[in-house]
Give the backbone structure.
Amino acid sequence: MVKAQDDEATNEHFPDFGVYGGTQEDAAEEYKKYRTSETEEDAMYLIKANAPVNSDAHANAQTQLNAGKVKMLIDERVAKGKLLTTKAGQKMTPEKRAEYLKPFTQTSILKEEMMNLREENEGVNIILKQANKSIRKDKFSAFEYGLYYIKLEEDSKKKKKKFKITDMLFSN
């Protein structure tokens, strides 16, 4: 994604994406060599996962969920039942119905992945382990890192707001 690409089937051109990394700007530095005049600046945020970052992300996700700041869609079976009670839903083709229900299906998968995780502590680090290895946790990881990115952005805005001109004045 850091290099421009052309889709031969559709003749569509996709520009390269610029990478930035917040607190890990040195890691994002490596991707600057791929930048061109058409680069979509700051399109991808680089998070180098390690035990402390993962622990912060886990704690933040748990805090946001427990505080009720994240609302989940209803279960896909409930959504399908409600859709089929409407005339528009009954007239939909199976493909259109599946497309309409996709966000609900994805939410159900996310909830299943979350229910499969067990929290363990290794010193100060929080480790999330899968109870059943056949159930993946990629949607949960994307969800968790998305929340973590939002937290980093909000924290950086708070730091910028705290700037006072009086802090820069020197008086005797």
Remarks:
- The two ends are 55 Å apart (CA to CA).
- Residues 20 and 45 are 5 Å apart (CA to CA).
- The beta strands are 5-7, 12-14, 17-20, 40-45, 117-122, 125-130.
